[in-house]
Amino acid sequence: MKVDLNKVNKSYTKGKNDSLHVLEDIDFSIKEGEFVSLLGPSGCGKSTILKLIAGLSHPTSGDLKVNGTPVEGPGTDRVVVFQEGGLFPWMTVLENVTYGLKIKKMKRVEAEEKAMEGLRMVHLANFTNAYPHELSGGMKQRVAIARALVMDPDVLLMDEPFAALDEQTRLILHQELQDIWQKTGKTILFITHNIREALTLSDRVLLMSTRPGTIKQTFNVQASRPRNPSDSIIVDLEKRVMAELEEEMNKVLKEEFGDDYRYKTDSVRDRDNSDMGSHI
Amino acid sequence: MTVIIAIWEVISKLQLFPTFMFPPLIIPNDPGGVTVMKTLVDGIISGQILEATGITLGRLLIGFFIAVVLGLTFGFLIARYKWVDDTLGFFVTALQSIPSIVWFPLAIVWFGLGNVAILFIVAIGATWTMTVNSSAGFKNVPSIYIDAARTLGASGPHLLRTVIIPASVPHIISGLRVAWAFAWRAIMAGELLGASGGLGYLLDLGRSIQAMDLVLSIMIVIGIIGTIIDSQVFLRMERSVARRWGLRT
Ligand SMILES: Nc1ncnc2c1ncn2[C@@H]1O[C@H](COP(=O)(O)OP(=O)(O)O)[C@@H](O)[C@H]1O
Ligand SMILES: [Mg+2]
């Protein structure tokens, strides 16, 4: 197994003797070369799981292994692509992409060659000297993907990388990400709160529920690739995920608005964009 | 501007006050008499004003440099260690509110009346505001940059140099600008009260020989230098960083 979580729990302490139980008994593993999505509403603990795997934060209890060895801290075998703003604004595109390579002590010429290769992969070879603020949201995320890919990580961790993009750009990037995944054979853990996005991209979707965050259900997506969002397998799965979610949403809304609130059962289905709530 | 100059000339020519107290700026009141302009030009030609400017700027740069180094160090420590924040961080806010000239009596006793005392009050006048700004800069580095850098293999001093410091640059630059303004005020006060050489000393000399034309021409020099440095150095730095980062357009 590439990534292996076993009864992982995470609590944040807030105040003296108060603590927030964010993750409860998270159990899952990811096979080499597999594309897995974590799907769940904002605040359910998706980013927390990703940070644990990245080694940026530590579990309160449980086992967490990557490549069979326990995760102790960050490492370049697990690189993260963040939602937005993950690029360094004071560096050019090329400097951003070569940043990790230089830390690996790669020679400048070699690092730049490798960076160009990565930038070509995301179709941005002409923007090497631009600063991030000069790029559109979609281009920034492409640079972030290139910056992660050139490190040649064992696992690519993506935290809602396309959540802030417009629908059209997002569809294009879905296509590109699938191509990249097929070309490189990377193991990818992809986080999203968008149902269709999860189903379109993944081999497997782990649906999370909230407070505390647990993995509620797993869906295998057996649609053929390249994926087509209107594939009947995907459409069918989308309905099943929705049904699961309605229950979850009622729970969340009740907590937020009181017991008398009931989310109208059909309204979730009617929305054409299968988003699960706020874009955070 | 022209209106103010004109009004000044008229008041001076009305002879409401003796000429030495209210000298004309451009046109002499009696043929061959003093004007601020003439004193200024003579002072520059004779080298007296240039020399004084050089001395003042030299002191200022040294004092400012010390303040920046101390301010960055303290700022970093405050941002990095909770206990430093609780002790020094708390104290700095109080120190910042003390006008630097208040330190002068202490400085004279500690270092004697001279260059060191002046450098001391310049440095102490700029250090605390630099500390406050740089600690704000270090504290507000978005954690996403640090997380991204760490997953790309950065740690320790390399992380500090390539991410934490550059990410704090906008705060640090506005800190430099304010610190410079504090240092500029401090050195004038210090030189005025006790120094040999420097623009502040010339001001005091002008007062003691009752030559307001000298005093006014030094004031003009001070205003011009202050403006030039602020707009040519600090404002430019701020703008170029803003442009590069896309903070403003
Ligand atoms: N550093 C932290 N300290 C305290 N609470 C946190 C911290 N990080 C996240 N949380 C809390 O943990 C919960 C899950 O957060 P997160 O993993 O970011 O959710 P998601 O990514 O699914 O939106 C949220 O309630 C959030 O407020
Ligand atoms: Mg998140």
UniProtKB/TrEMBL annotation, chain A:
Domain ABC transporter: 3-235
Swiss-Prot/TrEMBL keywords: ATP-binding, Nucleotide-binding, Transport
Alphabetized PROSITE patterns for the sequence: ABC_TRANSPORTER_1, ABC_TRANSPORTER_2
Keyword ATP-binding attributed: yes
EC number: 7.6.2.9
Catalytic activity entry: a quaternary ammonium(out) + ATP + H2O = a quaternary ammonium(in) + ADP + phosphate + H(+)
GO MF entry, a single one: ABC-type quaternary ammonium compound transporting activity
Signal peptide bounds: none
Pfam families per the UniProt record, alphabetical: ABC_tran (PF00005)
UniProt-listed InterPro entries: AAA+_ATPase, ABC_transporter-like_ATP-bd, ABC_transporter-like_CS, ABC_transporter_ATP-bind, P-loop_NTPase
Transport is among the record's keywords: yes
Domain of life from the UniProt record: Bacteria
Assembly and binders: The complex is composed of two ATP-binding proteins (OpuCA), two transmembrane proteins (OpuCB and OpuCD) and a solute-binding protein (OpuCC).
Protein name: Carnitine transport ATP-binding protein OpuCA
Organism per entry: Salinicoccus cyprini
